[in-house]
Specification:
By secondary structure, the protein is α/β, with parallel strands linked by helices. It is 35% helix and 13% strand. It is built from 14 helices and ten strands. The protein has a ten-stranded mixed beta sheet with strand order 7-6-5-4-3-2-1-8-9-10. The longest helix is centred in the middle third of the chain and has 15 residues. It is globular.
Length: 334
């Protein structure tokens, strides 16, 4: 696809956070935050560039003091606004404010079916009950909700219970996110990440479960192409840099939050120019297979899998995804 601007911008307004999650890509990040008027200028630039969706992440978006003002400006400008939250600060009043600000939906992180699993992964006692409370408050305020679940060794056997719990609390969609190897995720990878063959088994089970699941299941992993499944979007391989872009608190752009490679500042260069001319994005969109990808019959569909994960482990956009369970381009024998 040849888009004139990203379809979705994932925007970190602030890296402030009240959690210290064991997989977090950004816990150690600090960036200067723009004054509110400059942030609103960025909203206007996204609208002029015909971006369709803006998703606020972080950090914890609700710690950013101007979140509602930015969301209202984005909504009035025609952008469809969503956010991801750990849920700690979402009570009934906050949920009503989010609805009034025009949020199309709010995603709440839920990483286990029990407090023991979720709270340990999120490194915050009580966060499990707060997440469920957030889902309930948002449902009461008539804000559509989704659930984001990072699949890791501690919850992979129980993901169906997470889906059922999310549906019981009103979530329409559950995003089963693949584990990234960035930041604290890299530090704790040996303990938290699955082996490649375990990812294969997980996805085979999840794809079979999807048809009868009580909520819509969504995946964001291009490695699903190895199983003949549809990828995460309208393009092959990773969607970052093709359908989406990430903005830092100071207006700097990166291909995605998990790829700390800087393209330039949107306020200085303009979004469309960065999107069109960035040599980094050009390299990501036209990858050259390395290693076992050279001889893999599925490369044309997965394009090496997750670019952010490959870069985190190897330092190269073109390297094979470390989650790939194929050896020398051929399926591993069972």
């Amino acid at each position: 696809m040849d888009l004139s601007a990203p379809l979705t911008v994932n925007w970190t307004l602030s890296y402030a956070c009240n959690f210290s999650c064991r997989h977090c890509y950004s816990r150690g990040h600090t960036r200067e935050e723009l004054p509110l008027l400059r942030v609103l200028d960025l909203v206007d630039e996204l609208a002029r560039s015909r971006v369709a969706f803006v998703n606020f992440g972080g950090g914890e978006p609700l710690l950013y003091p101007h979140l509602l003002a930015v969301a209202r400006r984005a909504t009035v400008s025609g952008l469809r606004v969503t956010m991801n939250t750990n849920g700690w600060l979402v009570d009934a009043a906050a949920a009503r404010e989010l609805r009034a600000a025009g949020f199309h939906s709010v995603g709440v992180s839920l990483d286990g079916p029990t407090p023991e699993i979720h709270d340990r992964f999120r490194d915050r006692p009580g966060s499990f009950q707060r997440a469920l409370g957030a889902l309930d408050a948002l449902r009461e305020a008539q804000v559509p909700t989704t659930v984001s679940t990072v699949v890791f060794r501690g919850n992979a056997p129980d993901y169906q219970k997470v889906v059922e719990l999310a549906a019981d609390h009103g979530a329409e969609t559950v995003y089963l996110h693949n584990f990234k190897c960035s930041g604290r995720g890299m530090e704790n990878r040996g303990e938290l990440d699955l082996e490649p063959w375990e990812w294969r088994d997980f996805y085979e089970g999840a794809l079979a479960y999807r048809a009868g699941a009580p909520a819509t299941l969504a995946f964001d992993d291009p490695i699903l192409a190895l199983l003949g499944a549809s990828g995460p979007g309208a393009v092959k391989g990773s969607t970052c840099g093709k359908l989406s872009l990430h903005l830092e608190p100071d207006g700097e752009a990166t291909p995605c939050g998990f790829l700390p490679v800087y393209l330039g500042n949107v306020l200085e260069t303009g979004l469309r120019e960065l999107w069109r001319d960035s040599p980094v994005l050009r390299a990501m969109r036209h990858k050259t297979p390395q290693g076992k990808c050279r001889s893999c019959a599925s490369y044309g569909d997965c394009l090496g899998g997750c670019t952010a994960r490959a870069f985190a482990v190897s330092g190269s956009f073109d390297a094979p995804d470390p989650h790939c369970w194929r050896e020398d381009g051929c399926p591993r024998s069972s």
